[in-house]
Amino acid sequence: MIKELDISKIDNIMKIWLESNIIAHDFISADYWRSNYDLVKELLPKSTIYVYEEDGEIKGFIGIMEKSYIAGLFVATGYQSKGIGSKLIERCKECYPILKLDVYAKNLKAIQFYKKHGFKIDSEKENDETKETEYSMIWELK
After folding, report:
1. Residues in the chain with pLDDT < 70?
2. Measured between alpha carbons, how far is 78 from 87 in angstroms, rounded to an integer?
3. Which of 25, 69, 75, 80 is 20 to 30 Å from 50 at the Cα level?
4. DSSP letters spanning 10-76
5. What pLDDT is recorded for position 142?
């Protein structure tokens, strides 16, 4: 069910990326996400992307950059809170001894999810583009 992305399915994960960002970040204009769509689509192939696929349908994905940075974890609407994000995180923990990420402070659901998976807030900063507070979080293999 979890495998590396077949690049021919990039449009499928970009749909999940856009919808999930707009819903999870209602404190940021949807236009911000739409305006970054092409940039993200261009950067994704430079990352390691693991997808959760079932019956030929991608239900979620996680992108890892520089062998430790979670650039994003997204689960399609309708499949959230069913363990897919947890399975993707656990898969990455098997592959990488350190995982880092940035999450908006207002995204309480995501912060709670990452804390449940052993991540700790390491620092706080303001996002240069959105002017929103972000937390940098880290998980390390013990």
Report:
1. none
2. 16
3. 25
4. HHHHHHHHHHHHHHHTTTS-HHHHHHHHHHHHHHGGGSEEEEEEETTEEEEEEEEETTTEEEEEEE-
5. 84
